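User: Predict the structure for this protein chain, please.
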Amino acid sequence: MTINRLTSQALTLDATPYGSLLTQPGDNDAITQALASIQPRLTDTLAHFLHPSVPSRFMVIKAPGTQPYLDTIHELVTQQFSGKDTLYGGHYSFSGTDVAFEAPKTEDALFCTRPNILSTAWAETEQISGCVRQFNGVFSAHPGLLHRANGGVLILSLRLLLEQPLLWLRVKQWVTRQEFTWFSPDETKPLPIAMPPIPLNIRLILVGDRDELAELEALTPEMTEIAVYSEYEDEILINDEQDIIRWRNWIHNRALQKGLPQPASDAWPRLLELATRYTEDQYSLPVNPLWFERLFTSIATTTDATIFSSESFQGLLDKQAWREGYLAERILDDILDDQVRVETQGERVGQINALSVIEFPGHPRPVGEPSRISCVVHVGDGELTDIERKAELGGNIHAKGMMIMQAFLMAELDLDQQLPFSASLTFEQSYSEVDGDSASMAELCAFISALADVPVSQNIAITGSVDQFGCAQPVGGLNEKIESFFALCAARGLTGNQGVIIPLANVRHLSLCEPLRNAVEQEQFYIWAIEDVFDALPLLTGLPWGDEIQGRNNLMQLVQERIALASQQDARHRLPWPLRWLNWFNHN
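Assistant: Here is the predicted structure, written as structure tokens:
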């Protein structure tokens, strides 16, 4: 049995060992190269792709195709690119309807460029491929991004091309053949004049997420074979002090580039807490440009100083949480007003407090929600009814968790036939789809409570999935789940015996708010980390599963006794009805 009652120090990243590292001034060269140091795979792949001897003209990078990511990749490409300092493209001369194309002579010509690196998250067809215009009988040609990046690198959001598939097929052909041929975007209106093609020497980098890369492969399967592949890593793992230094340098680098304030020495620990809460891992830190810009731009709106203190930082976070906290407050109010029933004191048979997290479309943060799971059993044929599934409100993963839970119990009881009971399990007052297996540990404990007819403590909530051996498996959204139950207990008044049970593997994912940490330190609220269901049951019911304590029964014995009693009654009922009077002798 492994039940760990966590201390307040385990509930968030301890920044104390890194204090001196974070406050040291960074080396200028290290700050300049900070991005490359935290993206070694991508940097190495870019160096390979940009080498003149590499034949591929295409590279795909798994990353969101938003402008902050494209700017970040643009910076890495700039550091790795070393094109020849020569003119590419050429010059068009118009004489009436006659057009001549000449070799590049001067940079003043519209289609003459030196090696360049350009990026964009969105552009229309004309912005990519340029256009030919006619005004008062005079023709002119205007370059697009392809022409302006000739001799260099063009970085595009993959979504841009997937939403314009005909443009993508043309771009692929131009880059592959290394020649740009003019076309009319409107097939019903051909070009008014014949335009000579332009030599094109360009490398194309496409940036998109997994789904977009899958769409690209479906549209042009050969891209998987010819394109160089890499990924932008959104997190950096903390293996040693050098990783903390590299992350610090990256923060400095981004803030300097964007002209944003830097953290003061007392703000670094709070920034580390927030960073690990974002990654949901005490051993990894975000290097997500969207996260950085959203956070530091918000800080810049509250101060004109070049640095920000811990106090001003915390004030910003509190205001932001209040502005975005309407839904969480309404959920809590519904419970406190008894519109949604969740008990935090007393005991109930077959009823348990589970924890869920909801991600509302358009809402900036996930919201934790305590929920009540109930289970009732009655004499039957061993069927376990998942009410959510029957009502078509349960997803496939939730159904899988239910079947795993049932398989564990059947194996643990070592039955040679079906249970003589039927049971039904449900999320009470749940009116939308339920999916995921993070409640399977709670459902199993509720099922055992109902079978053994032993009450479950309502002052404890539990989260975690379970496997066929009863082991607790980690789940997501842990911080929001725990804080939602703590907020409910605190609103009703902390009694000193309330808490939450989590899988042991989830401890590294904790980054909890300060009021909760203070309550744990003062022993007003508890968090227990468990390895399996056998650890959870004594906390919830006061009884072990298989071992006797102080001469008391255990849960397995109580379940087996109830099964035996139900089986005897069932055997009597199986007599033919004319002979059922013989049951009278069995009662006497």
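The CA atoms of residues 200 and 476 lie 48 Å apart.
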